[in-house]
């Protein structure tokens, strides 16, 4: 079965670009900016070239260019003007658009070129905070609305995972500060979204902390085996889709009973969208919730 998506509805374009379908129709009819195609059953759709053009048009419009002026540009001059503006300012928006396009085309070269261009202006942690986090948030929404396929998401996240691992390797050679305190990074059972946790691991190692990365889908009971090795343990977990809303409160209680309430010097730091199902004011004493990776890192 072919999972590659190369036809887009107007609703897909709205989800991908943030431009309302009504606005797209106006631009199409009034300025002839896009030329939708039709299936054999006469259903309108847009191809990848239309999506790319709409991203560029939107970028120019957001940077002060009127649609009426953009419409008069020759086709090949639109991406040239986009690159010219991106070189001067607002590199974040341009990079996110380029990464989206690389994802939809399964274009590794575009991903690498965009990433390497960013590193000329920004440190890796800035790229992650300013580019990858907003990008991954958008990708999650696009996946939920069926605008992209799991193949698209896996393609992009595997490339981002690669960059995190490379940067972790770079900083792991640094001397770890001697300490009886350790951070244990893990995801609960059936939770596999590990990019955020991987970046936290990078930030901890970069700051000289002892960081033990266990990865995804770790049974709660197995964590107790670490208790005898360190005087102080801070577990960090990221709840993106698991535990589910109906289970997360009990999960926190079970963690507290097994690892915190027995008198050990143990804490649990948690992040992720599933925290919306919790009353954060009623968390056990040793459990702390963070709204973002950045707020957690600032708490170190």
From TrEMBL:
Name the Pfam families for this protein.
Answer: B12-binding_2, MerR_1
Q: Does the keyword Transcription apply?
A: yes
Matching entries from CDD domains are given as: HTH_MlrA-CarA
Q: Which UniProt keywords apply?
A: DNA-binding, Repressor, Transcription, Transcription regulation
**Gene3D superfamilies in the record, alphabetically?**
1.10.1660.10, Cobalamin-binding domain, Methionine synthase domain
HTH merR-type domain boundaries: 7-76
PANTHER family xrefs = MERR-FAMILY TRANSCRIPTIONAL REGULATOR, REDOX-CYCLING DRUG-SENSING TRANSCRIPTIONAL ACTIVATOR SOXR
What is the protein named? MerR family transcriptional regulator
